[in-house]
Structure formats: C-alpha cells, structure tokens
Amino acid sequence: MTVEVPKSVANTLVDIKAYAQETPLDEAFAWLRANAPLAQVQPDGYNPFWAVTLHEDIQAVESQNDLFLSGERTVAVCDAKREANTEELPVRTLVQMDNPDHMAYRRLTQEWFQPANLRNLQERIREVAKDIVDSMAATGGECDFVNDVALRYPLRVIMEILGVPPEDEPRMLQLTQELFADGDPDLGRDGDKGDSSGALEAMLEFVGYFQQMTEARRSNPSDDLASAIANGEIKGEPIGDLEAMGYYLIVATAGHDTTSHTVSGGMRALAEDPALLAALQADPTLVGKFVEESIRWVTPVKHFMRTAAEDTELKGQKISKGDWLMLCYRSATRDAAAIEHPEVFDIGRKQNKHVAFGFGPHVCLGQHLARMEMRLFWEELLPRLKSVRLAGEPTGVESNFVSGPKSIPIRFEMT
Ligand code: HEM
Questions:
Q1: I need a labelling partner for 8 at 20 to 30 A (CA). Which of 22, 111, 193, 361 fits?
Q2: Among 75, 37, 39, 82, which Cα is nearest to 56's?
Q3: Residue 80 has pLDDT above 90, yes or no
Q4: Domain boundary assignment for the chain
Q5: Does residue 253 have its Cβ closer than 6 Å to ligand 1?
Q6: How far, in Å, from the CA of 364 to the mean position of ligand 1?
Q7: Which CATH superfamily is domain 7-414 in?
Q8: pTM of the complete model
Q9: Residue 400 Cα, ligand 1 centroid: separation in angstroms?
C-alpha cells in the first residue's frame, strides 16, 4: 500500500529554514522513515523526486552507480526555476560525473588523498591548528565559535594546500558560502530571487580565480595538489579545462565548509554537556570517536541527487527511467536501524557506520583529510579548554545542500 506523504512533510525536505532549525527537519525525516521510507514527493514548486531516507537504501542506491547516475541531475538543485539556471555550468566536478569518466578523474588525485600521503601534511596542519587555538584564547573567553574559529581553520588548511594566499581566504570563504547557501539571507547572493543566480555568479568568480592558478601551475609545477590537477592527464590527454576547474572548485568549497560545520557541531556538543569535555580530557584517545560522532551528528552534506538510468525496482517500488532520487543523508544518520539511539550524541559507540561521507564509488574523497584536520584541532584545543558553555542561542545556515551552525556564541576558560 502506498502511503500518502503530507504536503507539509514534502515541503520540509527542501525548506532551507527547516534545515537551519533542524527540529522540523528531523521530525519530517522521522515521519518518512516510519511511514514511507522510500516515497515519491513533490514539494511546492519542485518537480517530483523519490526521498530516500533509510541508511540501507542510500547504500543500495549509491553502490549501484551505473544504475543511479550522478551526472544527469547533478547535486542539490532540483526545482524547475533553478534548473533553468544550471544548464551550462562552467565546471564539471566529480560529483557530476558517471563512469567511465568518474573513475578516470577520481584516480587522478585518489592517492594524494590517502592517509599515507596526508601524513606528510600532518605537522604543518598541526601548526595551523595551534595558531587558530591561540587566536581563540586571545579573544579573552568569549567569542562566536563559528565565525571566530571554526570557519577559519579548515579554510586555511585547504587554501594552503591549494596555494591560495592568506589575503584571498576571505574571498574564498564568501564565494563558498554564496555557492552553498545561496538562499541564506546573511550568506547568499540570491536575495528574494531564490533562483540560484547568486550561486552561478559565485561559481563564475571562482573559475576566473582558478584559471590564473592553473596557468601558474602549468608553467611552474610543484608537488602540491594544485599542480597535480593542473598538469593531470586522463587517458594520455591533458585534463580538460572544465574538469580542472571542477576539481579546484570542489576542493576549494567542499574542502572546508563541511569540515567547519562539523567542528562547530562538536563545540556545540561540548558547550551543552560538561561531562563530554571531562570524558575527553580524562581519555584523550577518545578524540577520534568524538570527531566521528560530530560528523554523524552534523551531517553537513544534507543531500545529493541521483537519476535512474533505466526502469528498476527498489524495496518493491517501481522506479522509472529518468526518476530523480534525493539521498537524504541527515535522515540516514538518524536511522535507528543502523545507529543505536541516534538521537544521542555518544562518543562511546562501538561502531559508528554513518553515511555522512556518502557511500560507494562517489564516497567523499576528502574524508581522511577531514578526519585528520579535526583530530589535530581537538588535540590542540581540548587540553587547554577548562570550561565552555553557550552564551546565547546558536543559529543555523539556511541551505538544504551544505549546512551547519551559522553562529555559536560561547563563553569559555582556557589556559
Ligand atoms: C566533514 C567533512 C566532509 C563531509 C561530511 C563530506 C561529505 C561528502 C559527501 C556526502 C560526498 C558525496 C559522496 C557520495 O556521493 O557518495 C562528498 C564527496 C566529495 N568530497 Fe567530501 N565531505 C567532507 C570533507 C571533504 C574534504 C575536506 C574534501 C577535500 C579536500 C572533500 C572532497 C570531496 C570530493 C572531491 C567529493 C566528490 C567525490 C566523488 O564524487 O567521487 N570533502 N563529500
């Protein structure tokens, strides 16, 4: 029997304010998981799509990447108005590719992102973490953790990796926020238009910036990631311009915003639960579990879309060729069938097999870097943090694609 999904639940799936507030969103996902875990929905103003809300269904879709394509319906944009604006994107990123290109382009940097290579960066990243922690101490015990600390750290790490000078970091941050949170009244450029034109403008600015960088790395290559991209070869041919730009863009955006949101979520958990700080200080080896739980808890990437390549069946539902599917990661990380007591922030989990990094062939390429960065940050901060608590009401970013805390006022004591 097909259960009808209430319009309010369908609308919540795309409502950027619900993503900022979290509770209405989690309630909508809980309703879907309980009543219609794989349901076709049509929010007002949107074309219909399947909402995939269970952990195991997301894994099933993601592991069949020749059946459920990424390239047809790229990422978050899925309403009719926005589609008009995304026909000719100035980039082609890994998340927009299918095989055979996806595999070939992913292989280009796969090794660079492996732990064995990342270990070479560890000491430098620790220095960056130390500097940021020092600057937090220098605020004198009160700050907005998101803007004063969390947004600055992964940004600095990834921009250094890419060779972007520190004076350009604020511009990179602003462009990232305009791209990922185009509808947010404080961060986006769309204003009342709500048509993604701001995101497209930001993308074009990024491309202009990285074109110059490509030329510099081609005439003067080093062993950094930017040089590996600029001088990459795919099947014996130089990497295409659209694809090189796509690589820079995804690293320069997904490479920090996701991680900052997660660090912020970790701090909020600490500020709300003094026992958590005490536990981490009593046993510093728990930091890895704390990082993992923060990733699950925040799930900064809220969804990606897939398109069915042919008629098929999933959990007894007939999916037609061309149907769109929304992979609702935030729902899957709260699915009690996969995560015990998902509503609790718990660093004691024996297993934490969440899908916040996605799953299968497209699984996050930067996951090891993200984990290492966060571990180093907390290793520097936790031993110096004597106490922390909220000093005001936190707010969230209004975006149904990449989102997390927008502001977390805290009061703290540090050595
Ligand atoms: C907490 C931090 C992060 C989270 C939660 C996250 C999450 C995700 C998710 C959900 C996907 C889509 C996976 C899928 O379709 O199955 C993805 C893809 C990707 N991420 Fe991340 N990410 C994070 C950090 C990073 C960092 C630091 C980088 C790079 C420096 C990065 C680079 C990428 C790339 C290149 C892809 C595309 C992979 C592909 O399509 O083959 N991410 N990420």
A1: 193
A2: 37
A3: no
A4: 7-414
A5: no
A6: 3
A7: Cytochrome P450 (1.10.630.10)
A8: 0.95
A9: 16
Residue with tokens 């990123």: 93
> How many angstroms is it from 106 CA to the middle of ligand 1?
12
d(CA 5, CA 403): 25
Non-local (6+) Cβ contacts of 171 within 8 A are 209
Query: CA-CA distance, 264 to 145, in Å (whole number)?
Result: 7
Q: Return the structure tokens found at 250.
A: 């995804």
- Residue 252: both structure tokens together: 């320069």
List pLDDT tens digits, range 254-283. 999 999 999 999 999 999 999 999 999 999
Indicate if the pLDDT at residue 57 is higher than 90.
yes
Mean pLDDT across the chain: 92
- pLDDT for 22 equals 96
Given a cut of 60, whether residue 21 has pLDDT beyond it is yes
Three-class DSSP labels, the chain:
CCCCCCHHHHHHCCCHHHHHHCHHHHHHHHHHHHHCCEEEECCCCECCEEEECCHHHHHHHHHCCCCEECCCCCCCCCEHHHHCCCCCCCCCCHHHCCCCHHHHHHHHHHCCCCHHHHHHHHHHHHHHHHHHHHHHHCCCCEEEHHHHHHCCHHHHHHHHHHCCCHHHHHHHHHHHHHHHCCCCCCCCCCCCCCCCHHHHHHHHHHHHHHHHHHHHHHHCCCCCHHHHHHCCEECCEECCHHHHHHHHHHHHHCCCHHHHHHHHHHHHHHHHCHHHHHHHHHCHHHHHHHHHHHHHHHCCECEEEEEECCCEEECCEEECCCCEEEEEHHHHCCCCCCCCCCCCCCCCCCCCCCCCCCCHHHCCCCHHHHHHHHHHHHHHHHHHEEEEEECCCCEECCCCCECCEEECEEEEEEC
**Average pLDDT value for residue range 131-146:** 97
- Report which of 215, 196, 199, 256 is spatially closest to residue 45, judged by C-alpha positions: 196
Largest CA distance in the chain: 63
Choose one of 69, 357, 363 to mutate for the ligand 1 pocket test, by most ligand atoms within 8 angstroms of C-beta: 357
